[in-house]
Write a structure and sequence with these properties.
Elements lengths: L10 E3 L3 H12 L4 E3 L6 E5 L3 H11 L8 E3 L3 H5 L6 H10 L4 E6 L16 E5 L4 H10 L3 E2 L14 H8 L5 E3 L11 E4 L5 E4 L5 H8 L28 E3 L9 E5 L7 E2 L6 H17 L4 E4 L7 H13 L3
Parallel strand pairs: 1-8, 2-8, 4-6, 5-9, 11-14, 12-13, 12-14
Antiparallel strand pairs: 2-3, 3-7, 4-7, 5-6, 9-10
The chain binds threonylcarbamoyladenylate and magnesium ion.
């Protein structure tokens, strides 16, 4: 990750065997590699490496932690990560590889970093159809977490030049596969319960409904159903009430430390924001596992990844 500073430039890798091997090696060592899919370019990191995944949010400058889509090469690899019932399996067989993302219940022991799901018990998975994405995923051999490869709030990139225009020097490399064919993000379907459309995208909803033989649910239309992508990061909160900017624990509180404030659990003793982001959701889950009735959280500086961490902590501390 030494190359990721303001003065460095990112490597531009060609779509040949050497480029794919270099991209896979960078992912293996925890690096960030943008790669083409048929929808848009993704900003990839090893989905099982929490620190690498935190690097995605740092590079994009995302002010909050949205859950990420995990990319794998085959339907079998997807099935190792999420539960697919009959309808999920039908969609996977009919539309993968392709511009479809399925959200399913995360299998225990899948090994996905909790920052990928923003602490949720569901995971978004896609098998992309782009030949270069397929070769990279096969060479790397593990799940790759990847949001669109643009700075937060900017348009999704459909060429390597778009990627570099936004992220040059902030990522290790871009694998150049030319322009994306679909140019629009994947369609996201939840297969937890009856299939539901979470985001319209590259595969038309009509095609999915025809394959399923039933209409999709539209949870976004129902104000009582909170499941819409983007709002999902607010879905998970620890059970204990949360107090922010604390330097000591009071009464029944368990202290979650950072930097000079050391707690029962600590986000990063070194005050490293990337390490803190990588550990955040694990710490919240562990506080639940400890049955912490109340949680006091040390101050986290509101810069860089600290903004996303504080956004998440403020949601956790909001009145319920
Ligand atoms: O075409 C695409 O989908 C591209 C390429 C790179 O695969 N990726 C992409 O990722 O568009 P991103 O991060 O820009 O959008 C991911 C969406 C977000 O709206 C997020 O809320 C949703 O996926 N998402 C991820 N995990 C989810 C989950 N467990 N439940 C519901 N929605 C989820
Ligand atoms: Mg995006």
């Amino acid at each position: 990750m030494q190359s990721r500073n303001a003065n460095a430039t990112s490597e531009r890798l060609g779509p040949d065997a050497a480029g794919v091997a270099r991209a896979a090696a960078l992912l293996t060592s925890g690096g960030l590699v943008a790669f083409p899919t048929e929808t848009v370019y993704g900003l990839g990191a090893d989905a099982c490496n929490a620190d690498a995944v935190a690097g995605i949010f740092a590079a994009k400058g995302r002010p909050s932690f949205n859950p990420l889509i995990v990319h794998v090469a085959t339907v079998e690899a997807a099935r190792a990560l999420i539960d697919l019932d009959n309808r999920g399996d039908l969609l996977a067989q009919a539309f993968w590889p392709g511009a479809l993302t399925l959200v399913g219940r995360l299998k225990p022991g899948a090994g996905i970093a909790s920052l990928v799901t923003a602490g949720l018990d569901t995971l978004a998975v896609r098998v992309p159809d782009h030949p270069l994405a397929q070769r990279l995923l096969a060479a790397f051999g593990r799940p790759v977490a990847a949001p669109s490869a643009n700075p937060s709030g900017r348009v999704s990139p459909t060429t390597a030049a778009h990627v570099l225009a936004g992220l040059d020097g902030r990522i290790d490399a871009v694998l150049d596969g030319g322009a994306c064919g679909v140019g629009l993000e994947s369609t996201i379907i939840s297969v937890v319960g009856a299939p539901a459309l979470l985001r319209a995208g590259g595969v038309p909803a009509e095609a999915l409904e025809q394959a399923l033989g039933v209409a999709l649910r539209h949870p976004g239309d129902d104000p009582s159903a909170p499941i819409s992508p983007g709002q999902l990061a607010s879905h998970y909160a620890p059970r204990g009430r949360v107090r922010l900017n604390a330097t000591t624990a009071q009464n029944d509180e368990v202290l979650l430390g950072f930097g000079p404030v050391s707690g029962t659990l600590t986000l990063s003793a070194a005050g490293d924001l990337q390490e803190a982001a990588a550990r955040l959701f694990d710490c919240l889950h562990r506080l639940d596992a400890m049955d912490a009735p109340a949680i006091a959280v040390a101050p986290v500086p509101d810069r860089g990844l600290g903004r996303a961490i504080n956004d998440r902590l403020r949601r956790a501390a909001a009145p319920r």
